[in-house]
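Assess this one:
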Amino acid sequence: MKSFVFDLDGTLLNSNIEITQNTINSLKKLKEQGTSIIIATGRMYSSMMYIIEKYLPFLKGYSPLIAYNGAYVLDKNKNILYESTIENKIACKCIKFLRNENIHRQAYINDVLIVEEDNNEIKSYSKHASIKYVVVKDLIDEINKRNNVIKLLAIGKENIILELQKKLKKNFEKDLNIIQSFKTYLDLVHKNTSKGAALKKVFEYYNLSFDNTYIFGDSQNDISMLNLTKNSFVLNNASNEVKKHAKYVIPSNDEDGVSFAIEKILSSNSFTYSN
């Protein structure tokens, strides 16, 4: 049986944060054929479900779901297969570091987005992700009260995020996986957490094989799963760094690249393409 794995932002979603009708129709064809479909995103669970409810309701009860870059994994029936959190001590230390760097920071605890500054960054992020957020006086106090930090996120200009990633790796690499999910977003999750690691858990649980699996992504946080199959697809809107990890570079997310690839695979039972 074939399996298809899709990232959301920059892959299924276009630049307007929409899934086009062409892409929806192609995904419906996959489901009609009994193909396994898995969604793997860096988004928080509620934000992922907003997209699924709006554009892909036919996947509810059908698709395993991976949220928070692999820190939260659900089976088809929304039972938790896996969940990882960041140790409080490490999360607090990281927040202090980001404060000193004067970088916007936010924490995700029990699927609640928490910030300590109600600034333009969080307002823009909230609109992009279609989620609400909670503002607190002190994020470190909140982390110590609530526990269970599943992810931290830093937001800044692209050049700042690239430099910040180097600094964070120098200080936290033994405890955290520090990856870009978007050119202005830097995600921090538990060291052993990634989309690829989560996908392995899903495949083991459902006894699926990577030999006949097609994986689609566009960002640095997709690399760990793109490396799991010979049928790896990166959209043309991706960076050159990510494109190096794909067998195929397909049209961009604003050109229905995913639908293009699915239709070719369905029509010929394989994929050949030169862009």
Q: What stands out?
A: Residues 88-190 form a domain with the Hypothetical Protein, Haloacid Dehalogenase-like Hydrolase; Chain: A; domain 2 fold (CATH 3.30.1240.10). The mean pLDDT is 96.
